[in-house]
Amino acid sequence: MELRPPGWRESLSDRHNFILETSPMRRVYCDANATTPLAPEVLEAMRPYLMEESGNASSIHLEGQRARKAVEQARETLAGFFKCREAEVVFNSGGTEGDNTAIFGLVRAGDHLITTAIEHSAVMRAADRVAERGAEVTFVAPRPDGRIEPEEIRRALRPTTKLISVMLANNETGVLQPVEEIGRIAAEAGAYFHIDAVQGAGKVGFDVRRFGCHLCAISAHKIHGPKGVGAMYVRRGTPLEPLLVGGSHERRQRAGTENVPGIVGLGKAAEVAMEALTDGTMERLAALRDRLETGILEIAGTAVNGAGAPRVANTTNLRFDRLEGEALVIALDLKGVAVSGGSACHSGSTEPSHVLLAMGLNKRAARASLRFSLLRTASDEDVEQVLRVTPQAVKHLRALAPEEAAVSAEDESACRYGQ
């Protein structure tokens, strides 16, 4: 039977879509660092505020006050998540807004900002923007394993250093940064400290007081919550200029009608994430991640980027020499496995990962690297399916690769980082 519509013209994209739409294969999603599916309990918590409870949380009538109560209950949960006061929790649209608010809200012309060469683009591009406006910016490079040396932060300090911004966990490699040590350095220098915790939240023990930060951003959709909502910890007394102005929402720290269903969903997702930190989920994920790495490393010409550094339990960044990572992403997708070449914010980009380049990989090695990030619900069967199809896909692509695409001896030497 003809399944293709009249006038259908074949292209690579069409063939890809046709296969996906007609294939009954079981799919394995290994791109949790890009986004996670909404947890069933989160959807149930949100449902009343998507349908019946439609009040504006700033209205004083009964419907508005019901909405306000839901927002404040979520704020209480997030205060427990951050380990802070309820008044220090500000709801927003997600991690990008939180990171932008920290940098634009504190750094002015003549100020000095210290950040790292491996940050998410929400920090990197914001840093570029304040530099254009007259601030000075220092990008600290990581060690070859992707970890930032606290002493490098100390050496970058100047009398004008206003803000230090360092992520908790890298979105591409999963490498955890020594934020407690950096927080102490910031305190000694009298500088403000911001943490992009979007990838670390819900995966490691979380305490903004222990971290020593003034600002911390998280996003709901990374912890099985809804897209388009996040939260920010703003330490009391931090002179943060709001990114959005207008009404008096969020104690005048973020104008705009509150996204009540989203905030409720974030609160529930944070509650579930806190439970996962104590019920053995992270240990189970770490074991699955290690099993995945062990199996992939049986393929010749593979390595783990960031090996040896502490990492979040669900993430591994793997290099497959003598092939293009983008081609392997597509090949695995056709075999029912979803992975990523790096940050979802740069999907489709032909540029190699700035994170891997900063770690010392050359462009060819960076382009040959893929991120596998497991969902909280990942299973043994998921990992076994990935290990069944990946060696076949790698072998096929390497057989198709032209001779000149092979990594040269010089490139192999440059690729030693992360092995």
Secondary structure elements and pairings:
Layout: H1 12-22, E1 28-29, H2 40-50, H3 62-82, E2 89-92, H4 95-104, E3 112-116, H5 121-132, E4 136-140, H6 150-156, E5 161-167, H7 179-189, E6 192-196, H8 208-211, E7 215-219, E8 230-234, H9 249-252, H10 260-276, H11 281-296, E9 302-305, E10 315-320, H12 325-334, E11 337-338, H13 354-358, H14 363-367, E12 369-373, H15 380-400, H16 409-414
Parallel strand pairs: 1-11, 3-4, 3-5, 5-6, 6-7
Antiparallel strand pairs: 2-8, 7-8, 9-10, 10-12
What would you note in describing this structure?
The chain has 419 residues and is an alpha/beta fold. It has helices spanning 12-22, 40-50, 62-82, 95-104, 121-132, 150-156, 179-189, 208-211, 249-252, 260-276, 281-296, 325-334, 354-358, 363-367, 380-400, 409-414, and strands at residues 28-29, 89-92, 112-116, 136-140, 161-167, 192-196, 215-219, 230-234, 302-305, 315-320, 337-338, 369-373. The chain starts with 11 loop residues before the first helix and ends in a 5-residue tail after the last helix.
